[in-house]
Amino acid sequence: MFFDNYLWAYLLAITLLTVSPGVDTLLVIRNTVRGGFRDGVLTSFAICLGLFVHAAVSAGGISLILMQSAWMFSLLKLAGAGYLVWLGARSLYSAYRGESGLKFDTGRVKHRQVAAWTSLREGFLSNVLNPKTVIFYMAFLPQFIQPGDPALAKSLFLAGLHFIIANIWQLILVLMVGRAAVWLSRPRVGRCFHSLTGSVMVFFGIRLGFDS
User: Fold this and answer.
1) Which runs of E-coded beta strand occur in the chain?
2) Residue 104 confidence (pLDDT)
3) Which DSSP letter does residue 170 get?
4) Ranges of each domain in the chain
5) H/E element, 63
6) What is the mean pLDDT of residues 62-88?
7) How far is CA 75 from CA 23, 37, 82, 87, 136, in A?
8) What phi-psi label fits residue 148: left (phi over 0), alpha (psi between -120 and 50 degrees) or beta?
9) What is the pLDDT of residues 82-105, one digit of tens each?
10) In whole angstroms, what is the distance from residue 182 CA to residue 200 CA?
11) Coil, helix or strand at residue 41
12) Dmax of the chain from CA atoms?
């Protein structure tokens, strides 16, 4: 039922989707620079938890309601766009203040102390409030659910596979950023990084808000 002939096609498609750069990738990298390995891993975990929400919503048909109700979908879209703009604005403010997020201490790099709830909240909301993920799951998952399959259980199973693949990929990103911590701790590099990530997040947010 769950391990059918379409599973390998799903795994290939979802892996290609996962490694494609996007808001999730950007947020994981930004938060790893900000708070180190723990911040990046918690952000990744929370982002991927949001996949189960989208899977349940898709299976329950709520996504169809959102897409057919113009004002409800617009509200969701604006909420997600506003949240991205807010995250980007915070990065730009950090760049303005010259906060790289990393500091040297007796030859070692020290990250800012970030509350676990902050990492989890940012990751979860950035995913759940993204209407493009709602549309993707609504259009994509049904292709791998056959007549007679329990829709909710199968959707959550597929989301679970996505959860594992996405966490593995984002953990690789966290480790790669960690190896570049000394370079990123340079004030000028840190300021440029925050400026770049902040600008991209604001751009994504504005484009999402005005995307028809």
Assistant:
1) 102-105, 108-111
2) 42
3) H
4) 27-210
5) helix 62-68
6) 73
7) 19, 34, 10, 18, 18
8) left
9) 877 887 887 788 777 766 554 544
10) 23
11) helix
12) 63
Can you read off the two tokens belonging to residue 167?
Answer: 């966490």
Q: At 44, list the tokens.
A: 């990744």
Range with the lowest mean pLDDT among 54-63, 100-109, 113-122?
100-109
- In DSSP terms, 104 is beta-bridged to 109
Which residue in this structure is represented by tokens 């708070």?
Answer: 35
Q: Please say whether the beta carbons of 90 and 112 come within 8 A.
A: no
**Side chain identity at residue 31, one-letter code:** N
Determine the residue type at 118: T
Angle 207-208-212 from CA coordinates, rounded to 5°:
95
CA distance linking residue 174 with residue 155, whole number of Å: 28
Angle at 142 between CA 139 and CA 148, to 5 degrees: 165
Q: Are 28 and 102 in contact (CB under 8 A)?
A: no
Cβ–Cβ under 8 Å, residues 130 and 121: no
| Cα–Cα dist 160/138, whole Å | 16
DSSP code per residue over 119-140: HHHHHHHHHHT-HHHHHHHHHH
> What residue type is 67 in one-letter code?
M
Per the confidence metrics, is the pTM higher than 0.90? no
